[in-house]
Amino acid sequence: MNEPAQIIQEVDTIYHWLDEQISGLKQPCDACGDCCDFESFGHKLYVSTPELIYFQHHLGSNIKEMITGICPYRIKGKCTVYPYRFSGCRIFCCKGEDEKQNKLSEKIVRKFKILCDEYGTPYHYVYLKSGLEMMSRGPEFKIMN
Ligand code: SF4
Ligand code: SF4
Questions:
Q1: How many whole angstroms separate alpha carbon 82 and alpha carbon 114?
Q2: How far apart are CA 112 and CA 122, in angstroms?
Q3: Per residue in 11-28, pLDDT tens?
Q4: Residue 54's domain spans which residues?
């Protein structure tokens, strides 16, 4: 297995771990999609290099630009990339407890940093808009340079 394939598999494992942690928090979410309109909702979604590599691998050429304050993958109020959504999308819940979400975010950031160290991949943690721009520049390997 080459390195990008290993990273993708490791991100999958991390997301699986994260989903289990989140399910333990029992956060009530109506899946209304309002928080994917960052401008109106007043928050930002940051994404890390391993997540971008994973996302690009699964989305292929379907990488969209973010031209408004709304995630381009929210269509008719629903997430169209749900299985591949970012850790910030998974953790955030408007009705959840900030402290628990912050702790989980710190843990996940650590895991992605360690992953980057292991594979010698530069760690970036950027606003979604910038991450989508980075991906639209070319294949996943470019993110790693
Ligand atoms: S990836 Fe999905 S969950 Fe995350 S901000 Fe975009 S539409 Fe919302
Ligand atoms: S976290 Fe809140 S705003 Fe976001 S989808 Fe769930 S209920 Fe809607």
A1: 25
A2: 11
A3: 999 999 999 999 999 999
A4: 34-143
Mean pLDDT for all residues in the chain: 92
Angstrom distance (rounded) from CA 92 to CA 111: 18
Tell me whether residue 19 is in a domain: no
Residue 27 lies in a domain: no
Number of CB atoms found within 10 A of residue 3's CB: 14
Question: What is the C-alpha to C-alpha distance for residues 48 and 34, in angstroms, rounded to an integer?
Answer: 22
- With a Cβ cut-off of 6 Å, ligand 2 is lined by 29-35, 92-94
Query: Which protein residues are within 6 Å of ligand 1, measured from CB?
Result: 36, 45, 71, 73-74, 79, 81, 85-86, 89
Helix/strand/coil for 78:
strand
Strands 78-79 vs 74-75: parallel, antiparallel or unpaired: antiparallel
pLDDT over 50 at 110, yes or no? yes
pLDDT for 137: 76
